[in-house]
Model the fold of this input.
Amino acid sequence: MKEKALQVLLVEDNAGDARLLREMFSTERAGSFELTHLLRMSEAVAHLAKGGVDIALLDLGLPDAQGLETVRRAHAVAPDVPVIVLTGLDDEALAAEAMKEGAQDYLIKGQIENRALPRALRHAIERQRMRVDTEQIRKQQLQLKDEFLSHVSHELRSPLTAIYQFVSILADGLAGELRPEQSEYLRITLRNVRQLESMIADLLEVTRIQAGKLNIEPQGASLRDAITDTVSMFEGSAAAKGITLSANIPADLPLAYVDPSRVRQVLINLVSNAVKFTAKSGEIKLQTRIFEEDPGLLVVEIADTGCGIKPEVSKRIFERLYQASDAGEAGRKGLGLGLYISKELVARQGGNIWVTSEPQKGSNFFFTVPIFSLASLISPILTNEVKPEEGIAVLVVEMDSQDGWLSPDGRIEISNVARTLLQRCLLPDLDVVLPKMDLGDAQELFFTVARTNKQGAEVMSKRVREQFRRCERLQKAGLTFTVSYSFLSPISRSVNEPMGGFAEHVAAGVQEHINTMMIARSVPT
Amino acid sequence: MSNKTILIVDDDPDVRMGLNIRLKANHYNVIFAADGMASIAEARKHMPDLIILDLGLPAGDGFSVMERLKANDTLALIPVIVMSARDPSANREKALKADAKAFLQKPVDNAKLLAVIRKVLGEKDLTPHAVHDLGEL
Done:
């Protein structure tokens, strides 16, 4: 069988070096190599892009590409083509760097033996092929693993449902009265059922994170509810261990720009860890405040008097599946996914998570989230000069459910629909739909800020009303809605005042307006 | 107090039996169907006040059941709560779009389940913590 000639690309601007290499190839059996010689990286990139190259020999000192950049550019255009770099005698360190960058091998000019060259080329090609194959297999396996996990967690939930149902039937005495120790044993079983359930939930969450399918919907919300809810959720289990669990939330805490359910998830994770690792009669304190190092962020701190974390471990605990080897009995009960999930959730809301700790004294976990800033949301509409006849209009859409209740999921969906409708009625570069404020029950409010005059506000309200009336989805959900607008009291502005200050002024006005409306609505009629 | 009728549609006999005991203890009448086809027949025959519907079913999955309910003027009035072991991130929105009143992931906490049932049936809820739980549906 006749072997196909290997297509070799040589990129070398030094005529002498190039000639030496070419001569080496010429001593090889005719038809085994076909050499293309180019002088510049730009030409090489164009040639690689065409495809068909089996291996590239790259000089690291070309006129239009220096050092590692040469390797990177070759990889960028042809990731699967193996690269051998050519270096001088005093440049082995650079060659080693190039290998880290993905080059398969390096040859030192002036030290290349005739017979070694073809072997080096073939080896490089073979190694590259194995690398590409391995990468492909790895990707396939990751995907299989994700599908498998998703499937398994579903399948595990079905029997778990039956176990939970029947154990709780026994525990609640629905199948006859129980002796105290029987009750106790069933309670232990139920606790472990919940543990299993939360592990399954974590597995699914991790699959979602890795598939990039995590759904986060930020809005202007207070951290107060999330924190007090979490504290009351763990009050029982903390009290059972004699642990004091408390929260300190300043009265003037600004709103955060977060997805409240996701913040809750992080808090639950951190507090449940704190309870787990804190010994009897210890203490757990939750605090939140404006972050000292960045006034645009809120920081939440969860401090415990538990067993603490060794410094070498404290960085790694946020890694997936990491579990400290000496975490003790409490630490082994879990998959090591909670902190990884928390880190991902915090990061995707624009914050950061970290821990400081002293072994045997306790740990302080911190995470940050952005402060809800109307000013930064509103400033886009104020970037142009305000004409004297224009004002700042606040358009309010109020939706009520006819049957007096919206499921939380229904809310999310309806609010998405409503926001899309509003966006459609607005001038995208002039008007701003504000994020949802954290509201209670069967009502949804939407605020839109626009720079316009009375007539403009009329037209806008009419258009919005029309859109909402025509929307089939909202009709079906049995919703009624009213659209109204009002103007903010004029804000005097000196010519010299910077734009940013003005945005804040307006934002303060809008905030006040929104507050008034929300208070007016919470007063029973 | 209640005596309202709930149709449970689930292909797992253990789940049906467990729910039966739990709901009967809370004074609901309970009827069953084990597949999509039977669920429509039972709904037609008994006109339940509420349907608790699994998604993975033989003879027409939960979504097709909801579609068929909607196609009938009378059956369309029966509220549906979807209760499934499937991944909520993919199925919750789909279920609510199909007009389900709520999506509950199995295993569902008893207090939460009863609170949702009462809410959907428009009954007064006497357990104070139950309403709070609704926040995490």
